[in-house]
Amino acid sequence: MRILVIGSGGREHALTWKLRQCRGVEQIYVAPGNGGTAGIATNIPIAVSDIDALVSFAREKSIDLVVPGPELPLTLGVVDAMVSAGIPCFGPSAACARLEGSKSYAKEVMAAAGVPTAAAGVFTDLGSARRFAAEHGAPLVVKADGLASGKGVIVAMTQAEVDDALALMFQENAFGSASSKVVIEEFLRGEEVSLLCFCDGERALPLPSAQDHKAVFDGDAGPNTGGMGAYSPAPVLPDSELGSMADITVRPILAEMARRGTPFKGILYAGLMMTDDGPKVLEYNVRFGDPECQPLLMRLRSDLAGLMLACAKGDLRGQDLDIDSRSALGVVLAAKGYPGPYPKGMPVMGIAGAMEEEDVAVFQAGTRMEGSSVVSSGGRVLCVTALGKDLLDAQSRAYRAMRKISMEDSQYRHDIGLKGLRRLGLA
Ligand code: AMP
Ligand code: GLY
Q1: What's the sign of the alpha-carbon dihedral 290, 296, 297, 298?
Q2: How far does the chain reach from its first CA to its final CA, in angstroms?
Q3: For residue 5, is pLDDT > 90?
Q4: pTM of the predicted model, to two decimals?
């Protein structure tokens, strides 16, 4: 089997690493890839948004399975284009990718499907948004409708912050056309957790729970990032509750999308807030999360390529997920300054040494090879991921391996997994 992975993050390095272990996989190409995928697959210089070039390449190389990692090519219709060319592609159509690409569309589908979520209003002008915000009062959450690289959500604790957020979106156009429409949402309290399911248009197979750490600094302080670390399982959503949680937050969406004539295939990722009133969906992603993917794939023992083909063909019947019962935890090493401006081009030392640790994988993200050395080329540089007999063990193995890696002007969080350990009474 010949596979084309699309993307250049830690998620795509982990996908490539896992797919390489699958039955019958002969060759993997990654477009455009990074320093990590360069070592285990063939990088090709095609941008994730260049759908025509991706289809031509897949045709030319007789690709048997395309695996898009990030949301952008999905919202641009890469799955539709590959399927039209007769090439199996794991992921949702552009119509389904709107669940991530438009927050107001996701809200509308959730309402139609009866999925619990925060109460919200949708606005296209500053005046009515301000009136709604004044009526409901802070705290409120202000969200740009479209894709904004994870930066389009502002949790506004005071009325002044709400006003600033609305001005940023409507007047300063900070998120371009992504914020020509804005969702204003009730602020929810609770612990966040992620539920990702393999979907074939009709059926959903839940992966174990994972928990991301979005804020840049320890204690969830500082601005939100793409994710500074993740672990699985998260004690706040134990395995015994995965089925019932999928019944509440994922399967009704599959039924509603099928009813609309656009069945959902691929990974449907529900970002949940576990509130005192039960689980509520904060957002849907239509792909693996980065870095949630890294610990999840370390625990997945099933044949990933087979699962992806089954989803793409619309038939997950007879498939189940074989999951390592151990915990996995990943810590992201980022450049100092990220998610703001940050330096690039720093040599990253010690990756090979870290990978010698038992049950540790180092998934590279913003890196490239310069001769035989790895140098940084992005904000999130790599994710050190470890399996351990329990959460505490996975955490100590991941941090032990991280201490073997060094990069000038770097930062990482020291408290990945802490919420889970607290819930287990271990911290
Ligand atoms: P989203 O991209 O919609 O998941 O939002 C990014 C982050 O903002 C989430 O992971 C939460 O931490 C926070 N957030 C989003 N919506 C809400 C909400 N309604 N109440 C509280 N926090 C929220
Ligand atoms: N880690 C969050 C995301 O991938 O959207």
Answers
A1: positive
A2: 46
A3: yes
A4: 0.96
- The two three-digit tokens of residue 304, written as one number: 């990933």
CB atoms within 10 A of CB 362: 28
CA-to-CA separations, 224 to 147, 327, 334, 395, in angstroms, rounded: 15, 25, 13, 22
Which of 290, 297, 331, 338 maximizes ligand 2 atoms within 8 Å of its Cβ, making it the mutation to test the pocket? 290
Contact 292, 230 (CB under 8 A): yes
Cα 154 to Cα 124, 162, 269, distances in angstroms = 17, 8, 21
> Which atom of ligand 1 sits closest to the CA of residue 189?
21
Say if residue 179's pLDDT is above 90.
no
Please check the confidence at residue 120 and state whether its pLDDT lies above 90.
yes
Percent pLDDT > 70 in the chain is 100
* Nearest partner of 297 among 8, 3, 7, 13, judged by Cα: 13
Q: What tokens were used for 145? A: 């409708």
Is pLDDT at 111 greater than 90 in this prediction? yes
Q: Which residues contact 370 (CB under 8 A, 6 or more apart)?
A: none
Distance, CA 371 to ligand 2 centroid (Å)? 31
Say which CATH architecture domain 125-180 belongs to. 2-Layer Sandwich (3.30)
Domain edges within the chain: 2-89, 125-180, 191-423
**Considering every ligand atom, which ligand is closest to the CA of 271?**
1
Mean pLDDT of 196-219: 98
CATH class of 191-423: alpha beta
Task: Tell the CATH topology of 2-89.
Answer: Rossmann fold (3.40.50)
d(CA 319, CA 288): 19
Split at pLDDT 50, 70, 90, the class of 28 is very high
Q: Quote the pLDDT of residue 173.
A: 83
DSSP designation for 209: P
Is any atom of ligand 2 closer than 6 Å to the C-beta of 212?
A: yes
Q: Which two tokens stand for residue 244?
A: 């019932």
Q: What pLDDT does 293 receive? A: 98
Residues 144-153: pLDDT tens digits?
999 887 778 9
Amino acid present at 423: R
Q: Does the beta carbon of 155 sit less than 6 angstroms from any atom of ligand 1?
A: yes
Query: What tokens were used for 212?
Result: 């991301």
